[in-house]
Amino acid sequence: MRPIRPLLAAGLVMASGTALAHPGHEAMSLASGFSHPFGGVDHLLAMLAVGLYAARQGGTARWALPATFVAAMLTAAGLAQAGMHFPLIEAGVAASVLVLGLLIAAAARLPLALTAPLVATFAVCHGAAHVAEKGDAGLLAYAAGFALASAALHGCGWLIGRRIPESASGARLQRVAGGALAIAGGMLLGA
Questions:
Q1: Any stretches that span the bilayer, and where are they (predicted)?
Q2: Which of 86, 87, 101 is nearest to 184 (CA)?
């Protein structure tokens, strides 16, 4: 496989959110939900970071972390729709970018028993934020849309992470990517 193909695929997936953001799609809950993670840099970076971090882990963490994120995000969305209040949602969303960036930069390989709850906590913030911004969209189709988009972004991050070579230059690239994510997360926290 050529190294450019995963990057091209990631670009096409990210561009699809722009196409869905054109006027006239507001009534389409699925499209609205799908476009939401692409509409905010905080959600976009967090989803890519989950995939990138998972790709650099071993064993079941490679698929369990993104799956945990989506499951916890959907659970929180349902609870938020039912009226449960989640404090500090935006700070949690920004913190997810910061912390995942730091883990990526440090090439941390923590046990799944530690990272799964961490990822789930961040996912709760994302799920509650998605529902807070859903407007009149129906929850089931909207949630299916943002779950699909999140999974696609996780997949893009995972593909990028798997393409980083296990070498000194690959380790530097991973540190730079993680550092950039951490800086962006810090800026989002300060905003």
A1: 37-55, 62-80, 86-105, 112-132, 138-161
A2: 101
